[in-house]
Records
---
Amino acid sequence: MPRPSVEAQRREQILRAACEVLSDQGLHEFRLADVARRAGVSSGTIHYYFDGKRAVLSAAFEHNYRLSISRRRELTAEGGRPMAALRELVEAFLPRRAEALTAWRVWAELWAEAMRDEQFQAINETLYGQWRRLVTDLIAQAQADGSARAGDPAALANMLVAMIDGLAVQVLAGSREMTADRMRRTVLQFLDGCVAA
């Protein structure tokens, strides 16, 4: 078995730290010195792996997505019951566990910056398109096995994704009206009332 690459491990360590700094401080307070401190490396080490702050940010957004998609793939690979997988996705991505909160905050920073920056728009387009396709595929599979009602799976996926994201942003913003528990009930009610057969 090949030995793990020290460079790959170090890069992963830096990107994990970058996501934590983004989550805790936001993009406008994001400094490479804070990433280095959090990762336990020197600033020079970060510059060895990345060509500056924008390169770290781009890689951190992609790293955050890879972590999210790997969790989603684990959930969706567990046995071929697509409606159950959709419900598991809702449960897994509620913004209440530390890991999920960090991921949501990093997404929110990407979305905010993508409104003004073409590079981050392109990253969002690529990564977010993959998330929508995963949900669309699950809905299409559920329609094929009879557990979801007929309809355009892409339209249903867009509704579901928009609901998850919009409600999660409200939870992150500390809404008294939209708690993680209320988000869960609302999204599952949509799945049961509008998607499930």
---
Amino acid sequence: MAGDTNTVLVADNVPAVVTNLQSWLAEDYQVETTTDGDEALSLVEDADAALVGCNLRTAAGAVVAAEIEHRATAQTMAILCDAHEVDPLPAVGDSLEKPVESAPLLKTVDRLVRRARYEELLAECTTLAAERGAVESRGDAESNEEYETLQRRLNEVFTELDELVETFDGEDFRAAFATCEFGTPSQPQSASEHP
């Protein structure tokens, strides 16, 4: 699902890591980079995917990854951690161990971009369905060109969602449904954690 329209944020406190990851991603994605925590927080909203070092902090000392975890974009973030950092913050599903290798990086970014597209399509689906409902409530849906246009686009969105979901695995589904509680991200439980 790589493409020039997808933006990836690479943010880490080590400039060499940022440069290396950017070089691998630049061919397929628009890449925004920073080694500044405050700048990372300002750039993440416009990114389709984010790779964030677990040690990157804001000027006030906040852990950037933890700040992003509390946003709706948390499912499109992967944490970059060194092997000795056993308990990285925050506890999100996707992480990459430094030094990061090209193949796992590209696979992870593709996964994150697909999740971002899924979220976009769900939001569009909700809007279209509400607009279609408003037309239906007026009682003129049968002869209404606006209704037909909405229905056609809604069908296109459903088709794209179906195709996208076919590429999902268990991690993708856990990430997609981790934000079901009123838009607040939460860490999904594994099956072994249930009583």
---
Amino acid sequence: MRIDRLAARELGEFWSLREDVTVLFGQSTVLRTPWGELHLERPGPLLCEALRRMQLGPVSLANVVPGFPGYDVPEGEWNEASRELLDALAPLQHVIVRHLAIGASPLLSVVPLSPRASFRPPPVAPGGELRVPKGAVLRRPGSDPVLSYEGCDHRIELHGPDAPRLLLHLQGGKVDFRSPLDVPLPQTVVRAARAYAVAAGMLSAVDLKGAARL
């Protein structure tokens, strides 16, 4: 077993801007996006700091606002600073990439693909059987799996050595371990990944005959 497999396998949530988004700061902050420019008139200091960090790569917004809530924290439990920042970020969902990590290792990224993209993970993923629609898995030779299908507003990128195992969880398959030393994915991570996949439109209900419905 590698040493990094012994590190704490805890869920981490991170935010970043799409790689093709540029932020120009000023009295009127401008975001240059694939779909045109977004002008933010007199953005608050929390939003400016979040954007400054997010343009550099995935960041925990708890480093901007102490106590920043995870996806599964009810709105009634958000602090005022978190509410202010989340309200400011809401109109920018189509340029924000959401990430999950396990320990220090990236695991899943949800990338918006259209100006219509909206991403709100449910606090608890819907019950019942959920599956990735057939034909939604695109494998690139030598690369990590990518989940996407035509017309979807997001794609999901899976990363690292845990990607195949997480893909099986999302596909509803049986996850086996090769040896007793293999460490299973924590249930908190699996639940978060399913909630993210639901929000991205990449999980659908399964009817009684086992055929996925979009």
